[in-house]
Amino acid sequence: MIDPNTIKNKALLAWVDGIAKITTPDKVQFCDGSQEEADALFKMMMDKGVCIKLNEEKHPNSYYFRSDPRDVARVESRTFICSKSKRDAGPTNNWMDPKEMKAKLHDLMQGCMKGRTMYVIPFSMGPIGGPISQIGVEITDSPYVVVNMRIMARVSPKVLELLGENGKFVPCFHSVGKPINSPEDDVAWPCNPDNTYIAHFPEERLIMSIGSGYGGNALLGKKCLSLRIASAMGKDEGWLAEHMLILGVKEPNGRKTYVTAAFPSACGKTNFAMLIPPAEMREEGWEVSCVGDDIAWIKPAADGKLYAINPENGFFGVAPGTSVKTNPNAMASCSRDSIFTNVALTEDGDVWWEGMTKEPPANLTDWKGRKWSKDLGEPAAHPNSRFTAPIRNCPSLDENADRLEGVPISVMIVGGRRPNGIPLVFEAFNWTHGIYLGAMMGSELTAAAEGTVGKLRSDPMAMLPFCGYNMADYLGHLVKMGKGLELTPHFYHVNWFRKDRDGNFMWPGFGDNARVLAWMVKRVHGEAGAKETAIGNMPSYEDINWKGLDYNKDDFAALMTFDPEIVATQPLKDELYEQLPESLKIERAALLERLS
Ligand code: OXD
Ligand code: MN
After folding, report:
1. β-strands 170-175, 134-140: how paired?
2. Boundaries of CATH 3.90.228.20 in the chain?
3. Inter-residue contact 267 to 281 (CB < 8 Å)
4. Ligand 1, residues 152, 223, 243: which to mutate, most atoms within 8 A of Cβ?
5. Diameter of the chain measured on Cα atoms
6. 316-389, what's its fold?
7. Atom 4 in ligand 1: residue holding the nearest Cα
8. Which of 294, 450, 467 maximizes ligand 1 atoms within 8 Å of its Cβ, making it the mutation to test the pocket?
9. Which ligand 1 atom sits closest to the C-alpha of 294?
10. Where in the chain is the domain with CATH 2.170.8.10?
11. For position 561, what pLDDT does the model report?
12. Is the pLDDT reported for residue 588 higher than 80?
């Protein structure tokens, strides 16, 4: 706990005071992010039946939460960009006039924290004091948010020291929107689904979220600050906030190359970020290390290269499908000091989810708190159930993950879930062509996203739900960012999810994706071949390291074909396409010409 009398930043104190007057909490607590503080909060929540401490032997220092079944995921339909002009929010965002939104929120905020504690969380996205890092302060009435934020961000009194008297921070207001007017209101997972708003004011660098306590709706450092607000900052200040993982590839000769990759939600970003190369490649000396699994902040440095940091300090990973087989590093990351939300509970006080083991253990309690059996016809863990795990637990954490200046980026990857017509990998001819590929990205929807399962959704740079301003202007900013660089990263499009006629995946994926990474890295250093095609440069069979994988030449040839009709499809909304920068329209014309 921080003594408010020690806080020098007047703007912060005035903001907290103003919010407290409107929301009328019982008390205000300034958080220091310490273990003692978290222990006290967990104890308070356990005493109230809000969470369960997991079996200390199986998952030390870890806790289990179940949400209200109406509050289980990000709600894109309730997420708004409130720029002064509608045009600046663009054709892909929900927009509301800032004055109108504030008036609406102001009504909902009246007394909304009654009976609750208001927590004030000073945090840094990125290493504290780093040149790419940013400071935020979240106000919340959810102790669950406090204990998650201390894993996902750097919460520390040092942040306030750095702020000093006049330092700037991004104010992040959050409330579950459920005042305690009578004892019945004091439920385990308070929320207000009928009045949920996740509002962003990019011009003011302000976030206001009310009504939901789950994930990106409530942990405001993540999608709200690190993508929506940061993308708007980046546009004004000449940097990039991307929905990208960051990893390092070490070759047998010891050379290290850093890679970022943008994939839409539910495309295995965490798995790719924590990839372990096949044993035969490891024996040769290949290593992959993790810098981050979701977000990259990227800035040009004085040497004319792009440098990236992971603004986060933890993983908020989708649990189902994660196992010691698919992602041992993720399993190790959440093996202790973690929080689990909406997974299933075993009879000995441990967690389980679909895909963790082939057979579910006996006597599970499901995410809704029911005795679970297969006959229920529903999964025991919610498909969007999560682990919140400290990044320091990741066995493959990169040695430079905490470097203030970030790591130099030589490769950028985009891709999605494409069952048909798109090859495993191809290389863009140049930066602008790469951004074009990112702009035209699409992915098949799975249950984790809102929408129809199996439908292809256009998702430019995987930023569709995360761009804090006009998507067309954002794509233009990306093109521009390549201009002044001494060295632009090589750009690639990948597809791990191609299926054959019988619906089977054609590529093993997971660790074997290291074979694709190895080719990319060699390309960057001018040491691997490629043949030019209409859509980009592609590896031949001989260009790939096949040690330990029996994958024949014909299968590879089939995997690398493309369907010109699918490639030529323009998936963007007409309104967005119209607003695109001319350079991307020229890329499109050139592609159509090459295909004809
Ligand atoms: C996430 C997402 O949770 O992209 O990271 O939806
Ligand atoms: Mn994400």
Report:
1. parallel
2. 241-310+401-595
3. no
4. 223
5. 71
6. Phosphoenolpyruvate Carboxykinase; domain 2 (2.170.8)
7. 265
8. 294
9. 5
10. 316-389
11. 98
12. yes
What distance in Å separates the CA atoms of residue 198 and residue 578, rounded to the nearest whole number? 28
For 153, the token pair is 């961000």
Q: Establish whether residue 545 lines the binding site of ligand 1, counting it when its CB lies within 6 angstroms of any ligand atom.
A: no
Token digits of residue 507 = 């590529």
**Tokens at residue 290, please?**
């993790």
Q: How far apart are CA 441 and CA 262, in angstroms?
A: 10
Which of these, 245, 229, 322, lies nearest to 494 by C-alpha position? 245
**pLDDT for 447:** 60
Whole-angstrom Cα Rg for the chain: 24
- Higher-scoring residue by pLDDT: 399, 450: 399
d(CA 243, CA 321): 21
- The predicted-structure confidence for 449-484, as pLDDT tens digits, reads as follows 556 777 899 999 999 999 999 999 999 999 999 998
* CA angle centred on 180, ends 174 and 182, rounded to 5°: 165
Share of the chain above pLDDT 90, in %: 97
Residue 448 has pLDDT above 70, yes or no: no
Q: Give the pLDDT confidence of 141-172 residue by residue, as tens digits.
A: 999 999 999 999 999 999 999 999 999 999 99
Q: Is 342 in the pocket of ligand 1 (CB under 6 A)?
A: no
Query: Is residue 242 within 6 Å of ligand 1 at its C-beta?
Result: no
CATH code given to domain 241-310+401-595: 3.90.228.20
333-389 pLDDT, tens digit each? 999 999 999 999 999 999 999 999 999 999 999 999 999 999 999 999 999 999 999
Q: What is the Cα–Cα distance from 158 to 161, expressed in whole angstroms?
A: 5
Domain 4-30+77-237 homologous superfamily, CATH: Phosphoenolpyruvate Carboxykinase, domain 1 (3.40.449.10)
Torsion of Cα atoms, 484 then 435 then 269 then 207, to 10°? 70
Mean of pLDDT values over 259-283: 96
Indicate if ligand 1 lies below 6 Å from the C-beta of 265: yes
> Which stretches of 250-311 are DSSP H helices?
269-273, 279-284
How far is 419 from 433, CA to CA, in rounded Å?
23
Q: Whose CA is nearest to atom 2 of ligand 1?
A: 265
Distance (angstroms) between ligand 1 centre and the Cα of 220 equals: 13
- Regarding the beta carbon of 350 and ligand 1, being less than 6 Å apart is answered no
Q: Is 467 a catalytic residue?
A: no
Average pLDDT value for the chain: 97
Coil vs helix vs strand at 278: coil
